[in-house]
Specification:
7-stranded antiparallel β-sheet; 47% strand; mainly beta
Length: 316
């Protein structure tokens, strides 16, 4: 549970407000071993003040669940208790009209004795040691992100609920969701508590299927990534892309139509052919440029009397 607010306030009277990330209690068993309790979760509260009145106190808890008991006269093994979670505050731990708990869950009874004469183990560690102060401000809160083909382009749009120390977003693209290339750099808003919308357009998307994601960079250099989105472009018959570009090792030529016959080769900036021709297969071909000098090259694709060209930059 993540809570970000200027202040947390209660007023009037209530039966008691609660913020809970407790682990679940296990169900009891018959003549078999019972399940263990769930571990407590995490609660992060970033708030300058907690103004809680006596008539409406708040219970904040992230405790482990209880293990299940065995409803049988013989010992079959009760469930162990779940471990405590954590509660982290950006300011001091509240003491007025607030109770903060991170308790270990209790072990279940190993049989149906009453009072229990054989108990399974509780969560390990000392209860109450999962309460901390000094939580750093929550990072950029991303509300949404989309990557949508529009004609011959891909529009990447996203929105943030708030930002803290956000330097920039980098739109990244990949043909295999493994090797990524920067497509665009979009300045962030720094620190803001307002909803902010962003948009970037990839004017030269890869043919067929590709992937997009955001790299968010803070002013201190820390980095986080968004989820990965897949995009499929309709074949246009003349698409030919090199990825990655610039390249330093192996680069891949992608083109729309499936070609079982044909070859490609490289030209340097003086128009001289470099190396041997490369074969193509099923709409792609790989080229090793690790031994080439830095600079600009031309990739030439030949199929019968049909020739197509595209530029490639080598940068080690």
């Amino acid at each position: 549970i993540f809570i970000k607010a200027r202040s947390i306030v209660t007023t009037g009277t209530c039966s008691g407000a609660m913020i809970s990330a407790n682990g679940a209690n296990a169900v009891n068993a018959g003549n078999d071993g019972a399940g263990g309790g769930g571990a407590g979760g995490s609660i992060v509260i970033e708030s300058d003040t907690l103004d809680l009145v006596p008539g409406c106190p708040v219970l904040i808890q992230a405790s482990g669940g209880s293990g299940g008991r065995v409803d049988h006269a013989q010992i079959h093994g009760g469930g162990g208790g779940g471990g405590q979670g954590v509660v982290i505050f950006s300011a001091a731990v509240p003491t007025d009209n607030a109770t903060v708990l991170t308790n270990n869950g209790s072990g279940g009874c190993n049989n149906n004795s009453d009072p229990c004469n054989s108990v399974a183990g509780s969560g390990v560690g000392t209860s109450g040691t999962g309460i901390f102060t000094g939580a750093t401000p929550l990072p950029v809160v991303l509300l949404s992100i989309q990557a949508i083909p529009v004609n011959d382009h891909v529009h990447v749009t996203w929105a943030t609920a708030s930002e803290n120390g956000n330097h920039q977003f980098v739109v990244e693209r990949s043909m295999d969701a493994v090797t990524w290339q920067d497509v665009d750099h979009v300045p962030g808003m720094g620190t803001t508590h307002s909803v902010t919308s962003y948009r970037s357009v990839d004017d030269a998307p890869l043919p067929r299927s590709s992937y997009y994601r955001l790299r968010q960079v803070d002013h201190d250099g820390s980095v986080t990534w968004s989820d990965v989105l897949s995009v499929h472009m309709q074949d246009r018959g003349d698409d030919m892309r090199v990825f990655p570009n610039p390249a330093s090792g192996t680069t891949t030529l992608l083109f729309s139509e499936t070609m079982n016959e044909g070859y490609l080769y490289l030209l340097n900036d003086m128009g001289q052919r470099i190396g041997s021709p490369h074969s193509v297969n099923n709409g792609s071909a790989s080229i090793d440029v690790s031994e080439l000098a830095n600079g600009h090259y031309i990739v030439v694709l030949v199929r019968g009397d049909h020739i197509r060209r595209t530029r490639l930059m080598v940068k080690h």
